[in-house]
Amino acid sequence: LQSQIEIEPDSGSIKRLFANMTAAGLIHLETVLLIRSSKVALVRLTDQGKNVLISAGITRVVKSDWDQLIDRGLSGQDISMTLEFLYHARVRGWKADLVEKINRQSPDVIVRLPGDVEGWNVYMVTEAYPRLSSRYDFSRPMGICTTNSSRRNALVAALRPVLVVGAATDLQTLIRTQRKGIKSELWMEKWGLP
Question: What is the pTM of this model?
Answer without folding.
Answer: 0.80
